Structures are given as structure tokens and as C-alpha cells.
């Protein structure tokens, strides 16, 4: 039996969930889905990336949609193009066996707006959009949100850290005037986000907070090795050579760090490509196509640029530079050990950074194994 039935999910979605091995609800799904199905009023869900938030809000949205009404009924806002694409793809998978077709369209910067306007002229029930592109469409009167009943902000803290607060304010000002329900999902609650909640969400908005100790994938082995900064690249190149044909992501804290590391590895004849904020959309798409098609084994990424990347069968995640924020460790390491498979997360740390490993262990309730430099 699929346990999502106990939460009130209809049979028309259960077969697709089972087919995608989504059987047992996560904590955020258990707490959010019954409420969002029953009432659907304003909601705040604080949970990390990788905890199943898309299904937590996506399944109630799909169940609320009236397929016979050929108009946009729900709006999902995400910080990046890749995450918008991933959300739309997952919603499409959920509707594989639906009684009637439910159409989702993703719109985002980096693609010609005229092409997306043309797509929106087709019957569309759910729109997934980045903030800037939605503002563009609204200013052109190219999108009709008159029948939207629910607006979701996914990864809301990331939208603010990427400079989208003014756009989010404008979008919520518009949707609130239409009396839409607002569902907000975020890993953290910075001050600017609390301001948005106070301004745009009801005082009695239902809130769910998932504690950090429940979010780390138990199939991930956490390791660290000590490497002096001057020898770090050499240790990394030996590590990557040992991995042979196994694929993984290397995380850097800054785009400058990612760019430098890409050049250093290529100088050692190691094929690696980096994605970061300075990379144009066409080049970013090229790199991601190579990585997803397994023609590229090693991807270098920053924390923000990696949002929305969904690649199966990654053997490892490597933290070449530890993240600034503790939550990002979970975001990063969650890229491996997906769909019940094993994986490992390894941090390259200088002797002065050992206290950060202790902080991660304490806060996330995980244990690191020290490994010797290769």
C-alpha cells in the first residue's frame, strides 16, 4: 500500500507516486499535505532542500485543480530556472495516470519571452516561474492570473539572497489583491523573509518546522580529510583519478573559487566544468547537458548555481570549500545517495577548519569519519 493514501491523496495520483518509488511520506509531507488538502489557507513550511517539499505542496495543488477550467489556477515561484524546470517535471510525473490532463508550464529567464508567451496561450492549469520572468509577463499583460487560488514561494530564502525581494513583494501584492492563498517554503527564516510573512500572510498562517536532525539522508557516508591549502589541488586531483568513471559534484563557496578550480584541474588534464553566476545561460545549459548525459563526470558548482540540479547516480559530493551556512551542507550532500542508493560526502578541510566539522556534527546529528589524504 502507498502511504500517501492515508494523507488523503487520491488514487489518480497514487499509481504515479508508486511508480516513482514515492511510498512513505517525509515529515514535511506528513504535516503539510493533510492541512493543505483540507483548508489550503496560508501556510509556512520551514524545511531543508531534499525533504520532499515539491510533493508536499504539489500534490495538494494538483488535487485542487479543476482540469475542466482551462485557466491558470496555481502559481509556483522558484529562485532559479533549473528548480522551476525540476518542479514542472515532477508535477508532470505525478499526473501520468490522472483522470483528466492537468497542464503545467515553466517560464523563466534565459529563454525568449515570446516563445513562452506562445506556450501560455495553450490550456495551462499551473505555472512555475522565476520572479523576474513573471514580472515581465505581468507587465506585458501576457499572463492571466485572475483564477489563481494558490501561490507557492519555494526556496523563499534563496529568492531573497539572490536579490528578488522587490519582485516577490510585487508578486504577492498582486496575488493578495486577488485573495489567493499563499504557501511559503524555506530552509531558513532571515529577517527580510519574516517581513514578507508579516506583510502578506495571514496572522493565523499554519506553520510547520522540520528539525534539522531529521533531514540528513542516512544513506550518505560523511567523511573529511585534512589538506593544507597549498597542497589541496594535488590531493583533489589524486582523489578524482581514483574515482575512475564515478560521477560527482565539487562544491566551492564562491564563483571565483569555482572558476579557478576549473582552470587548475584542466591544467592537470582532468575534465571538469564549472557552473556559477557569471556563466551565461547557453553555456550553463551546455554544461548541464554534458553532465546529465554522463559525457562529463565532474561538475564544479557554487551553492546558488546548484539549486534545482537533479541528477541521478552521483557517487559522491565533495566540499572543496565548506559552505558559509550550515544548511548548505545538507543541500550539497543531498545530491548523492538518491532513490535508495548509497553515496558519500567528503570535505577537504584545512587544520584551522576542524571546528566547522564539529559544528556540522553537532547541529545535524551526524558523524564524520576522518580519512587520510590520498
Automatic annotation (TrEMBL):
Transmembrane segment boundaries: none
Residue ranges of domain Helicase ATP-binding in the record: 34-207
Gene3D superfamilies, A to Z: P-loop containing nucleotide triphosphate hydrolases
Entry keyword set: ATP-binding, Helicase, Hydrolase, Nucleotide-binding
GO molecular function: helicase activity; hydrolase activity
Motif Q motif: positions: 2-30
Keyword check for rRNA-binding: no
InterPro entries reported in the protein's UniProt record: DEAD/DEAH_box_helicase_dom, DEAD/DEAH_RhlB, DEAD_box_RNA_helicases, Helicase_ATP-bd, Helicase_C-like, P-loop_NTPase, RNA-helicase_DEAD-box_CS, RNA_helicase_DEAD_Q_motif
Pfam families reported in the protein's UniProt record: DEAD (PF00270), Helicase_C (PF00271)
Helicase C-terminal domain segment(s): 228-374
EC number: 3.6.4.13
Domain DEAD-box RNA helicase Q: 2-30
Enzyme type, top EC level: hydrolase
PANTHER family: ATP-DEPENDENT RNA HELICASE DEAD, DEAD-BOX ATP-DEPENDENT RNA HELICASE 47, MITOCHONDRIAL
UniProt family annotation: Belongs to the DEAD box helicase family.
Protein name: RNA helicase
Amino acid at each position: 500500500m502507498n502511504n500517501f493514501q492515508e494523507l488523503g491523496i487520491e488514487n489518480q495520483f497514487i499509481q504515479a507516486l508508486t511508480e516513482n518509488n514515492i511510498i512513505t511520506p517525509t515529515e514535511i509531507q506528513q504535516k503539510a499535505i493533510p492541512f493543505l488538502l483540507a483548508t489550503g489557507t496560508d501556510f509556512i513550511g520551514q524545511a531543508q532542500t531534499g525533504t520532499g517539499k515539491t510533493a508536499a505542496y504539489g500534490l495538494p495543488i494538483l488535487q485542487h485543480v479543476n482540469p475542466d477550467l482551462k485557466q491558470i489556477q496555481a502559481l509556483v515561484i522558484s529562485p532559479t530556472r533549473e528548480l522551476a524546470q525540476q518542479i514542472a517535471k515532477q508535477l508532470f510525473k505525478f499526473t501520468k495516470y490522472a483522470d483528466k490532463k492537468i497542464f503545467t508550464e515553466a517560464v523563466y529567464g534565459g529563454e525568449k519571452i515570446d516563445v513562452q508567451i506562445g506556450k501560455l496561450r495553450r490550456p495551462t492549469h499551473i505555472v512555475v516561474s522565476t520572479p523576474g520572468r513573471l514580472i515581465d509577463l505581468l507587465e506585458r499583460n501576457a499572463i492571466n492570473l485572475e483564477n489563481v487560488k494558490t501561490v507557492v514561494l519555494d526556496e523563499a530564502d534563496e529568492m531573497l539572497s539572490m536579490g528578488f525581494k522587490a519582485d516577490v513583494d510585487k508578486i504577492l501584492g498582486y496575488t493578495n489583491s486577488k485573495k489567493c492563498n499563499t504557501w511559503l517554503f524555506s530552509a531558513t527564516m532571515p529577517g527580510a523573509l519574516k517581513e514578507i510573512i508579516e506583510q502578506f500572510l495571514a496572522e493565523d498562517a499554519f506553520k510547520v518546522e522540520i528539525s534539522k536532525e531529521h533531514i540528513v539522508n542516512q544513506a550518505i557516508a560523511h567523511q573529511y580529510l585534512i589538506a593544507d591549502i597549498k597542497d589541496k589541488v594535488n590531493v583533489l586531483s589524486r582523489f578524482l583519478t581514483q574515482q575512475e568513471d564515478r560521477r560527482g559534484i565539487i562544491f566551492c563557496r564562491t564563483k571565483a573559487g569555482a572558476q579557478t578550480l576549473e582552470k587548475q584541474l584542466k591544467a592537470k588534464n582532468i575534465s571538469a566544468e564549472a557552473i556559477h553566476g557569471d556563466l551565461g545561460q547557453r553555456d550553463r545549459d551546455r554544461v548541464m547537458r554534458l553532465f546529465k548525459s554522463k559525457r562529463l563526470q565532474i561538475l564544479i558548482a557554487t551553492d546558488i548555481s546548484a539549486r534545482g540540479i537533479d541528477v541521478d547516480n552521483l557517487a559522491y559530493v565533495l566540499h572543496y570549500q565548506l559552505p558559509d551556512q550550515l544548511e548548505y551542507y545538507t543541500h550539497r550532500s543531498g545530491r548523492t545517495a538518491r532513490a535508495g542508493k548509497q553515496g558519500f560526502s567528503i570535505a577537504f578541510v584545512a587544520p584551522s577548519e576542524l571546528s566547522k566539522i564539529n559544528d556540522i556534527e553537532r547541529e545535524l546529528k551526524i558523524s564524520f569519519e576522518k580519512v587520510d589524504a590520498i
